[in-house]
Specification:
Blueprint: E1 4-8, H1 19-26, H2 30-36, H3 42-55, H4 60-68, H5 74-85, E2 89-97, H6 98-108, E3 114-120, E4 122-124, E5 130-132, H7 154-168, E6 172-177, H8 183-186, E7 194-197, H9 202-209, E8 217-218, H10 224-263
Parallel strand pairs: 1-2, 1-6, 2-3, 6-7, 7-8
Antiparallel strand pairs: 4-5
The structure holds magnesium ion and zinc ion.
Binding site for Mg(2+): 9, 11, 178
InterPro entries: HAD-like_sf (IPR036412), HAD_hydro_PyrdxlP_Pase-like (IPR006384), HAD_sf (IPR023214), Pase_PHOSPHO-typ (IPR016965)
Binding site for substrate: 20, 95
Length: 272
Amino acid sequence: MAGIVVVFDFDKTIIDVDSDNWVVDELGVTDLFNQLLPTMPWNSLMDRMMKELHARGETIEEMEEVLKRVPVHPRIVQAIKSAHALGCDLRVVSDANVFFIETILKHLGIRDCFSEINTNPCYVDEEGRLHILPYVDFETSPHGCNLCPPNMCKSMIIERIQATMAKEGKKRMIYLGDGIGDFCPSLKLGEGDFVMPRKDYPAWNLMNENRTLLKAAVHEWTDGEELEHILLQLINTITVEESQMLSVECKFQTMSKAAHEALRPRALPVPY
Ligand SMILES: [Mg+2]
Ligand SMILES: [Zn+2]
């Protein structure tokens, strides 16, 4: 156990598209979505779209079927299974919602690889309509970060995870993401951590423009194969480093014990 926490963004990181756009496009409400987008925050708009879909007679089951068809690179599923098998603590931090993420991860058979899903909550009401709520109630308690959308600043979540890591004896974090919202939390990573932005996506662009602000080492990836290769390589590097550090500590302890023994005044053998 290397004590590694791996944090995954969801949209365009675990899955190849944006789950919100996927559902909106597949269920034929793209025009209304585009028309309303300038008038309200994305998260509120998604809730509005759920209301629209319900009014048009779309059921939760139909939405589940659409979500199960979402494009996913098979090597990413394998990378997640491997990282979990190697003892890493995997978590999702996403601006999608619990229903979309849980449905897709369960369908892919990898829900149980994750110890935590941090995202916008939702519930299905008695009429079978899905309600999507903001992760942060921006009316009563705004997060105050002007880099991030009003409903979620991923840095808040990363800082909470970092606070618990120390207590659980976990030391290193690897963060994977693609979007503008993944830049803010990347700034919270420390030396010894790694950030894996998807190449040519907004987070990658922002990191390139602001290299000096980042303490973590940056390793870009383009597709599922590269993600798998780099992630497993980083996990291996950390594991080797941590075990070397552990063996140095052990040697040091053994040495100091030997030195201590050598200096200890010997008791004279007492003849019977
Ligand atoms: Mg994303
Ligand atoms: Zn932020």
